Amino acid sequence: MEYPLLQKLSEWQKQQAAREGVEPYKVVPFVTLQAIAAAVPKTKEELCAIKGFKEARFHKYGRALLAITGGTAPVVTTTETLFDEMDRVQTFLETKDREAEAGIAQAYSVSDFLDVINGALLRHHARVRGEVVSVDARERVVYFTLKDKEGESVLNCLIFRSTYDIAGVSLEEGQDVIVEGVPEIYKPSGRFSVKVQMIEVAGEGALKKAYEVLKKKLAAEGLFAPERKRDMPLLPRVIGLITSREGAAIGDFTTNVGQYGYRIEFIHSSVEGKRAVVDLLSALKTLRTHAVDVVVIVRGGGSLESLQAFNNETLVRAIADFPVPVVCGIGHEQDETIATLVADVGVSTPTAAARAVRASWDAALQRMEYCQRTLFTHFTHMLSGAHHAVSTLAIRIVHPVENLLLQFRHLQEKFLYSAHHRVPSLIGVVRERLAFYEKTLFANDPHRQLQLGYSIARVGGKVVRSVAHVRRGDTMDVRVADGTIVTTVNEGTIKES
């Protein structure tokens, strides 16, 4: 369901109820308005297919509702078909006169009669072009009068101040304008007028002049200054998108914005002509309540007249005051709207707007790919260096070991050779030495000396080597070849040399 559209339908319901002096639900039930907002009918058949909206209600309100949902009424002058529709009222009144003459109908009160007239007029929502001949701007309502450039026909008009401010048109005498609204007779005064719902400057020249005046005014305020504009958020995730669901702009944007996992908060809005101002303002108001990172407004190219909503001062200031950066991608290369100039990022096409949104994502992806390539290159170099180091270390380790093994084998072979040829001679030498040692041991064997008559004397277990080592009365053990003699020393004599 389009909530901005439902809001407009609800406002129309309240205004119409006020005109008719009835409760709003008696005009069109709110549930029916919801169904209209959901279906967005464009034709009589589509509108009458909605539950609760039959032929009789269409004759009374159908044209006004189709105008709100997107239908456009033809532009007429003050002397054309708008007043021709009064023929139907005249026919109705003549019928009532005949009934009154026949005595079968009662007279209307003035109020009821005007209700009949206004009910008939309400169906004739129209666009009227004329020259402004007078303006009376009051606090809540602006009254003005239109006339044909040729002829004496005039038309009284009024527009509520809130609607007038949104329109962004400063009415001046002699100005050529197009108004859109519903005719009615004001019951307290019986004055016929058109209650204007939309007003715009007519003619390419007048639009261009208004464009230049507003552009100069906002430039003097610094709204176009680069230092006022905000940078695009880094890696935006939530995008508020405002455009028409029917145009090609939405496809151009979503196709080119890239697949970076965005969440797009889409708000449908008309983007054609002056009527789009209300929709665009409503969409911006809605997105203020959403946690978006950036707002994008896009539409295709067109004439200055079709793009005039984006040269509206109220809309331009709403864009400038929006709390997050706004990207405007409107028209083609030759189209430059004031909304584009005041936006934080102003580009000429929906595709360019998509590229502006995705720029930080593209840069991050390129940086990541560069880091990936750099990391792979560094890793390859490190792996190659490590392989070279391992190879060098292996050479340093393996060659010494191989040399040691060769030396060991050489020594082994040398030892085996020596052992094979020198062992016999070594054995002979050992035998000779053993024989020599045997003879030496035999010659110095103490037992052999004892057998030759020698003896060994000990006192206290110590061998006596001198007379001076014994005293009289010492017990002496004297060992001889076949035993030991124990004796007492009585006297010792030192041998003189």
Key words describing this protein structure:
497 residues, Exodeoxyribonuclease 7 large subunit, 5-stranded parallel beta sheet, HRDC_dom_sf, single chain, Rossmann fold
Account of the 3D structure:
Helices cover 49% and strands 19% of the residues. The chain is α/β, with parallel strands linked by helices. Among the domains are: 236-444, Rossmann fold, CATH 3.40.50.9100; 448-488, no CATH class. The strands form three sheets. Strands 2-3-4-6-5 form a five-stranded mixed beta barrel. Strands 8-7-9-10-11 form a five-stranded parallel sheet, sandwiched between helices. Strands 13-12-14-15 form a four-stranded antiparallel sheet, with no helix packed on it. Strand 2 and strand 3 (141-147) form a beta hairpin. The longest helix is centred in the C-terminal third of the chain and has 94 residues, at 350-443. The radius of gyration is 60 Å and the shape is rod-shaped. Mean pLDDT is 83; it is low at 72-86. Keywords: Cytoplasm, Exonuclease, Hydrolase, Nuclease. It is found in: Cytoplasm. Its main location: cytoplasm. Bidirectionally degrades single-stranded DNA into large acid-insoluble oligonucleotides, which are then degraded further into small acid-soluble oligonucleotides. Its EC number is 3.1.11.6.
